[in-house]
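Re-run requested by the PI after the first attempt was lost when the workstation crashed. Everything re-entered from the original request form. Ligand of interest: N6-methyladenosine-5'-monophosphate.
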Amino acid sequence: MATAAATSAVGVGTGQALEQLEVNHDFARSLPKIELHAHLSGSISRKCLHEVWTMKKAEDPNLAVEDPLLAIPPDKVDYDLETFFPLFSSYIYKLCSDKPSIIHTTRSVLQDFQSDNVVYLELRTTPRAIPDQNISKKVYVEAILACLTEHNNLPTNTLSAKLILSVDRRNTLQQAEEVIDLALAYRDAGIVGVDLCGDPTKGPITTFTSAFARAKRAGLKITLHFAEAPTSASDEELWELLRWAPDRIGHVIHVNDEVKREIVRRGVGVELCLSCNVHARMITGGFGEHHFGWWWKGGSVGVALSTDDVGVFCSPLSNEYVLAATHFGLSRADVKELCLGAVEIIFGEEAEKERLREVYRSWAGW
Ligand SMILES: CNc1ncnc2c1ncn2[C@@H]1O[C@H](COP(=O)(O)O)[C@@H](O)[C@H]1O
């Protein structure tokens, strides 16, 4: 294995081999990055939520929603799965509750990824109706897509953003079918796939088998939250999810050797979220014990380091690269290999893949 990130700093352009150059924060920040597992509502920074709260409070002094800076204190990242999921329905959705707040927060999320030098983003969100605002799920999806298009069309932006629509494990089959319908209807407007997410204690996932089969038949790409918690990692559930023929899977924590072998045999891409898994105590141990180590060297499948919910866990993608490098001894050459592997598992088209390969080939920062 190449030189660990913690070794002494050596600069770019010193003529040293890629293996010997350090993966530090400056390098990771300027590295063009690919983000494939980011939930829109979980990616909103506390600062941005605070802005929304301030605007709403000015409009309505009786607003019965606590200031985000108090409700989600700035340094708090230790949300476990029991405290994490209620954060959305009982808090964040109360702030992102109308068109202006949805547009403001989506723009802010895109800007945050752009500022961290993410060059390709597949953002995901669960279509959400807000009847008292006349917002249907269709209107919600259109509003998000409009923000993505606006961002992508600005020539100074280097980030290209696509959308994945999520089915929540709490959904009914009919609600899941609605998500698939929307994904198909807005395919040409930037939707590249569908996801299964939500509280892993909810189920059963067989409710959605026919909906995901239809998505697959129609050519939509599929990503699934996979073995995220012991309750969602029975053999029965994992083999059922694999029968849906996912193109990628996320988290991939509680998997036995047989399932791992099958994932590798099929070449399913994995989306790994170090900070989320450590802070939410979804794995035993710290960063050094994260299964990234296994997938990176033992997996031979594309691995996309991802943030999951940067608004909650507060670790931008550049920091995830530093963490991976620090705890698993990645050199700059390893990071290049990792990035090129992520290119191959994006849901975007071949032309987008070629653009990204070229970005990495020609990047002067190696
Ligand atoms: C531990 N990580 C996770 N595991 C599973 N589902 C997650 C998640 N993080 C976020 N979500 C899902 O994303 C929704 C919020 O974003 P959107 O409103 O869709 O943009 C949450 O309600 C949850 O269902």
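Saved to the shared folder this time. Residues 39-42, 88, 125-126, 166, 168, 197-198, 225, 228, 276, 280, 308-309 surround N6-methyladenosine-5'-monophosphate (CB under 6 Å).
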